[in-house]
Amino acid sequence: MERAAVAAFLEAAAEGEESEPYSAWLDDLEKAGPPTPEVAPPSGQEFDDLIPRLGIHEDDALDLAETRPTPTDDPELWWLLQRVHTAITTNLGDLNFDWRRDPHLPKALGAKGRFFYAHVLLASVPKIRAWHQQRGIPDDISWATLRDLGRQIAIYRRIHGVGGMDVQFWFTLHFRGLIYDFGRLQLNRGVISYTELQIEQAKAPFKKGDPALGVHIPEAGAMTPQACDESIRLAKEFYATYFPEEQYRYAVCSSWLLDPQLADYLPEDSNIVRFLRRFTLVPNGYNGDKDVFQFVFRKVDPVLDELPQRTTLERAIVQHLKAGKRWEIRTGWFAL
User: Fold this and answer.
1) What pLDDT does residue 61 have?
2) pLDDT by residue (tens digit) across 105-126?
3) Residue 327 pLDDT
4) What is the mean pLDDT of residues 126-132?
C-alpha cells in the first residue's frame, strides 16, 4: 500500500462532502512510518478483557468489534492506523509536543470511519501502559486515565445517535503520558503558553514556558469544592512523586466554565461560580457558544427554543443567548 493509493481512497470517499484536508496529514504520516512490528487492535479475549477496563459500554463494544480494520479487508485504513499509532506514541512523555490534529475521515466510510481513531487508540494501549509502568505510575491512576476513552465514545453516541468518536486530538494527552485522572478533575503536564502581553496584563508571577498543570473538567458528577480540592491535592502529590523534575507551581485552565458572566445568573455559592472564583483570569476570551451547547446539552447547533430548561444553568444559557449575548471561553490560573 502506497500513500498515493490511500490519498485516492480518501478523496473518492469524500467526494461531494465538505471534506477535511488530507494531503499534509498524509505527508506527515508517511514521514512517521509504520511501527516495527505492526500493531493491531485487540481481538478475542484480549478485546473482551480490555473493554471493561476502558469503561466502554456494551453497545459501543459491539460496534468496535464489527468495525475492527484488518490489513486484508481495509488496506487503506490499516496503512493509516499503523502510522497514526507511530505519530501518537513516538517520544512518549515529551512536553515539547504538538497536539495531534488528525482529520475526521469521510462520512461515506460510515461506522468504520467513525470508529477508526478508537481502534488506533485501542492498538496503542499496550505502549502507553508499558510507559506508565516504567515510570512507576500506579495502575489505578493509569486505568482511570485511559477510561476516558469509553466516556468520550459514549458521549459521541449521546450527541449523534450513532457510535463513533470525534475528539481524537484530545487523546494526544492520554496516549502520550501527559494527562492523568484524579477523580473530579484531570490535570495534564504542560507549560505556560500565554503571550508575554497576556502575562503582563494578568500581573502573573510566571513567565512563558514555565511548567504548569492544565486543568480539565470531565463528566464525572458534582463539581463540589471539596471534590475539586481533593483532585488538586492528589495531583500535587502525584506530580511531585512521579515527575519531580518538572516542579509544578501553577495550574491553568481554558473553559466556558471560567466565563464570569455565569456569576450574573448563578448563585454565588453554586459549584460553578465557586470553581471559576479559584482562577485569576487572563484578559480577553473567544466565542464559547458551541462548547456550551456540547458540554451542557450534548447537542451541536441546536434550536434555542427546543433546548431543555430544567436547571438554573440551562435557563441561564438560553436567556443569555436570546438576549443577543454570547458565552465565552476564558482562560485563568491559580497557584498550587
Assistant:
1) 98
2) 999 999 999 999 999 999 999 9
3) 97
4) 98
Domain spanning 182-336: CATH 3.40.190.10: no
What's the rounded Cα separation, in Å, for the pair 241 and 111? 42
pLDDT at residue 125, rounded to an integer:
98
The dihedrals phi and psi of 158, each to the nearest 5 degrees, come to: -65, -35
**Is the separation of the CB atoms in 332 and 282 below 8 Å?**
yes
Non-local CB neighbours of 131 within 8 Å, separated by 6+ positions: 92, 93, 177
Q: Tell me the pLDDT band of 259, cut-offs 50, 70 and 90.
A: very high
Q: Where are the domains of the chain?
A: 1-167, 182-336
Give residue 97's pLDDT. 75
Output the pLDDT for position 323: 96
Distance CA 40, CA 88 (A): 15
Q: Which residue has the cell 468495525?
A: 67
H or E stretch covering 95: none
All three cell numbers of 69:
480494520
For 284, the enclosing helix (H) or strand (E) is: none
- Contacts with 13 (C-beta within 8 Å, 6 or more apart), sequence order: 105, 106, 108, 109, 113
* Grid coordinates belonging to 19: 471534506
- Average pLDDT across the chain, whole number: 95
Distance CA 277, CA 268 (A): 9
Write out the DSSP string of 146-208. Answer: HTHHHHHHHHHHHHHSS-----GGGHHHHTTT-EEE-SS-EEEEEE----HHHHHHTT-S--T
- Is the pTM higher than 0.90? The answer reads yes
How does DSSP assign 221-283, residue by residue?
S---HHHHHHHHHHHHHHHHHH-GGG---EEEEEEGGG-GGGGGTS-TTSHHHHHHTTSEEPS
Q: 249 — phi, psi (to 5°)?
A: -120, -10
Q: For the residues of 38-84, what is the DSSP string, one character each?
A: ------HHHHHHHHHHTT--HHHHHHHHHH---TTT-HHHHHHHHHH
